[in-house]
Amino acid sequence: MIYKLKLLVLFLLLSAALFGQSKFEKKGDKAILKGDYPEAIIQFKNIKDKNAEVNRKIAECYFVLGNYDQSENFYNSIQEKEKNSADLLHLSQINLANDNFTAAVLLAERAGELGADPNEVQMRLATVRKLIEVRKANQDLKITKIKVQPQGKCLGIFLLPEGIVYSEAGAGKLKSDKNYKLLLATSENSVFDAPKSFAGKLEPKTDIGAICISQDGNTMYYTRWYLRKGKQQMEIAIAEKKNGEWRSKESLAFCSRKYSCCYPFLSPDGKTMYFSSDMKGGYGGMDLYVSKQDGGKWTEPQNLGKSINTAQNEIYPRVLSNNQLWFSSDGHAGYGELDLFFTSRNEDGSWAPVINPGEPYNSAFSEYSIQDIPETGMQLFVSDREDRGLRDRIYELKKEDKKCVQIFVKDAHSNDIIKNVKFAVLKALENKEIAIEGKGGSEGETSFEIPESELDRGILYEITVQKSGYIDRVIEYYPSSQKMNIEVSLSRISEKPKFSFVSELEPIAYPKKKITFKNIYFDKNEDDFSDEAKKILDRLYRFWKEFPELGIKINGHSDSKGLAQMNLDISLQKAEKAKTYLVKKGVEASDIEVGAWGEEFILNGCFDDSGCSENEHHENRRIELIFVL
After folding, report:
1. Short-list 399, 367, 369, 398, CA closest to 384
2. In degrees rounded to 5, what are phi and psi of residue 570?
């Protein structure tokens, strides 16, 4: 009897657990249907024994929310044999957003092998190839926030001759049915300032935004939000300016209560309108449509086709001054959430393949509502990248002015120009090689360009100068408006150098008795140093060989992830490994002092609960190499 009771209790407990698990999963599924992904994640995480399907749902929720780090973690918790083609395509996009192009390609190809749509796979591969191309084209672009900013969420921007019109929800609590208002920030020399109300009497109790205005400034088309049977819908309405006031008229004839129309863009001649709609007959989500004015009436909208529209959302169409059609989409392969894309008409009238312009246009968050100012070469768009989706900001993007730095090489003894010199320039913080301009080293001089904004900001460039028969030199240069010409003296190998190593490194901003050579970064699970790290250690050894009177200090640092004692041990192991490497090269062990600091000196504020990415944590896992005088 007791045995039977025990079995009954065990059965009841097991049933309760299974019932609880099913309940959480059902609640999570319902939350997804409502679009409440944070709630869905909470419910799925309550399930104690998560199978591949539950982990997949959590990963997909994080993916939709743009939290790619967490999404990747849950996708990777699924065993390889249980991953499907959709999992691999999402992982491909995550790696694409993290600039890991090789992994993005391999995952897309594996997705194809598992049955993914070949067109989608090819589109992903083409996107990766194009992103590699546009990265080089975009490297001179500088992105900054304009002076005037929305206080909360924004429904888009529109440029007028006198300034920029933007919408905002504000930062305070909502007190009425009208949450969004329009503001005009006046402009002088492309600097926006002094926001004031715009069309304040237009629809005083209705949310409006995403506007466009005719070239004569008297007709406005705007998106009007309303609720129908508990569902938010949108339509495009007309307003006319009379006696300095905007007065609402009817909505456009092709709008309907059965679907939404929104985000209008009007051609300069006022005869063509692009907009977004989820009307019947599209490809899914919001598609892009075009309508023409004929006899004072707008024609039946035409879908722009499957080369532009996807099963997801395409919104905020804009034709810029170069006649390219720009829009935002979360359906084309990109960096995450809404990305900016562009296309143009072929000679036969068809649309060319859609292109993702890459960084700095796009991020892992949303970008939309792009505009351009042709006379300044500036582009403006809205993004929520800085506040991780909580607040929208308006950014300007323009090609940055460059300054030329000249390098001259002379013989340290004769002061003669040395020809046929090899140069290499490295931007140290980004570990990025900088292109050499002009004649190279054939005439004993060369030059390279730096962004004007980097002058006088203490940004380190390493200039390597090499010539057969001479001692290699590595010059540490901090771009300065007072020093745009660099003169380098090389000493012959047979001669004793006439400069002191101390004076060469004196410009480095460190205390008098300590001069940092360079940092080496590492991963916790690395068994050995990378080839790049070994090159740095080899250079340090060569310097020490020339100046053996210098002592060497090696400090090991770690990130803050994990236990403090474990991090201290890891930093010590890495520092000792660097010492062993240098001793094997020939440095006296007694000349090397080793220090381990663990997580005591975090450089960028990335502590355990800071929400930093893996790349940001990686910046703290380093070995600091110091010459001690």
Report:
1. 367
2. -65, -45
Helix-strand-coil percent breakdown of the chain, rounded to 5? 25, 35, 40
Q: Are strands 163-168 and 157-160 parallel, antiparallel or unpaired?
A: antiparallel
Distance CA 627, CA 591 (A): 10
Phi-psi domain of 598 (left: phi exceeds 0; alpha: psi -120 through 50; beta: other): left
Quick check: helix, strand or coil at residue 621? coil
In this prediction, residue 2 has a pLDDT band, given cuts at 50, 70 and 90, of very low
Model pLDDT for residues 155-205, shown as the tens digit of each residue:
999 999 889 999 888 654 444 556 788 999 988 777 888 889 998 888 888
Read off the pLDDT of residues 225-259 as tens digits, 9 standing for 90 and up. 888 777 788 999 999 998 889 998 889 999 998 99
Return the pLDDT at 14: 40
pLDDT, mean of residues 575-582: 88
- Answer for the pair 517, 508: CB distance below 8 angstroms, yes or no: no
- Alpha-carbon span 63 to 337, nearest angstrom: 9
- Dihedrals φ, ψ of 343, to 5°? -155, 175
What is the H or E stretch that residue 395 is in? strand 393-399
Name the CA radius of gyration of the chain, rounded: 30
What residues have CB less than 8 Å from 252, skipping those under 6 apart?
Answer: 221, 235, 236, 237, 238, 261, 291, 298
| pLDDT tens, residue by residue, 430-487 | 777 887 765 455 677 888 888 887 888 888 888 898 888 888 888 888 888 888 888 8
Element (H, E) at 104: helix 101-113
Helices (H) and strands (E) in the chain, counts: 11, 31
**Token pair for 68:** 């790619």
Provide the b/e sequence for 514-539 (b: ≥16 CB within 10 Å).
ebbbbbbbbebeeeebeeebeebbeb
Distance CA 444, CA 420 (A): 6
CA–CA separation, 553 and 625 (whole Å)? 6
Q: Is 337 left (phi over 0), alpha (psi -120 to 50) or beta?
A: left
- DSSP designation for 404: E
What pLDDT does residue 16 have? 44
**Length of the chain in residues, anyone?**
629
